């Protein structure tokens, strides 16, 4: 919804059309970064647990 308000307010109807793919790309990048961070922390936990045994 924010994509329509932000880009629609700035660029009108064309902004609404452009806003959807732009926010989809931003969402995808953030999702990938979060997943990579979670995987890194899980891997680090496994290494820490196996070293302490």
Indicate the proportion of strand residues: under 5%
How would you spell out the order of helices and strands?
H
Question: What gross morphology would you assign?
Answer: rod-shaped
Rounded mean pLDDT is 80
Rg over C-alpha atoms, rounded to the nearest angstrom: 19 Å
Low-confidence stretches: none
Helix coverage percent? over 70%
Count the E strands: 0
Major beta-sheet overview? none
Terminus-to-terminus distance? 50 Å
- Secondary structural class: mainly alpha
Number of H/I helices:
1
Describe the structure.
The structure is a single chain. The protein has 53 residues and is an all-alpha fold. Helices cover 96% and strands 0% of the residues. The chain contains one helix and no strands. The protein has one helix at residues 2-52. The longest helix is centred in the middle third of the chain and has 51 residues, at 2-52. The model has no long low-confidence stretch (mean pLDDT 80).
């Amino acid at each position: 919804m924010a994509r329509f308000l932000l880009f629609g307010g700035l660029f009108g109807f064309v902004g609404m059309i452009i806003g959807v793919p732009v926010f989809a790309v931003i969402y995808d990048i953030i999702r990938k970064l979060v997943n990579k961070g979670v995987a890194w922390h899980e891997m680090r936990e496994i290494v820490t647990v196996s070293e302490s045994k």
